[in-house]
């Protein structure tokens, strides 16, 4: 069982490094260090390769229906249990920025769970999700389908800032 625990730990570490290096890449680019940004992007992609391989080896990549069910459960836990607790703790500490960050994530996770539920229903019916476009809010991570709102219903960012996801 030590190998399974090691795979889970490695997956978590590689996943975090992937996201951290992606953020470092953007920061380097913003500061004018384009080649450092490229190096971090490559490292981020390498960490993603490691994480995916570890996920496969530990049996974490299943059918789309099973993956959706697990995603619904994970997102639901985040918006019903984890983030409400994090918001409460941040409020007690007076950390307003953390309260906003956690609240935005909590609300976006609820949207994600709903979208995964729709996707699961489609997959269980033998169909793909019926949609034309997918858009992502760059501030809170809200996902909207087919049309961009005038303003994000979670964080209020103007809809023109939403990015299209291919």
Automatic annotation (TrEMBL):
Transmembrane segments: none annotated. It comes from the Archaea. GO terms for molecular function: metal ion binding; oxidoreductase activity. SUPFAM superfamilies: Ferritin-like, Rubredoxin-like. InterPro entries: Ferritin-like (IPR012347), Ferritin-like_diiron (IPR009040), Ferritin-like_SF (IPR009078), Rbr2/Nigerythrin (IPR052753), Rr_diiron-bd_dom (IPR003251), RUBY_RBDX (IPR048574). Gene3D superfamilies: 1.20.1260.10, 2.20.28.10. Keywords: Electron transport, Transport. Pfam families: Rubrerythrin (PF02915), RUBY_RBDX (PF21349). Residues 1-127 form the Ferritin-like diiron domain. This is Rubrerythrin. It comes from Methanofollis fontis. The lineage of its organism: Archaea, Methanobacteriati, Methanobacteriota, Stenosarchaea group, Methanomicrobia.
């Amino acid at each position: 069982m030590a190998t399974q625990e090691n795979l889970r730990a490695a997956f978590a570490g590689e996943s975090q490094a992937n996201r951290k290096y992606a953020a470092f890449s953007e920061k380097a680019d913003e500061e004018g260090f384009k080649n450092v940004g490229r190096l971090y992007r490559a490292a981020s992609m390498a960490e993603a390769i490691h994480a995916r391989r570890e996920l496969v080896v530990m049996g974490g990549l299943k059918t789309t229906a099973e993956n959706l069910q697990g995603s619904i459960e994970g997102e639901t836990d985040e918006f019903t249990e984890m983030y409400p607790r994090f918001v409460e703790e941040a409020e007690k500490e007076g950390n307003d920025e953390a309260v906003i960050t956690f609240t935005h994530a909590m609300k976006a996770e609820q949207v994600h769970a709903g979208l995964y539920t729709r996707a699961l229903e489609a997959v269980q019916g033998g169909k793909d999700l019926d949609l034309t476009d997918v858009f992502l809010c760059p501030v809170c991570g809200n996902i909207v389908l087919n049309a961009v709102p005038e303003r994000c219903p979670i964080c209020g960012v103007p809809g023109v800032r939403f990015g299209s996801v291919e």
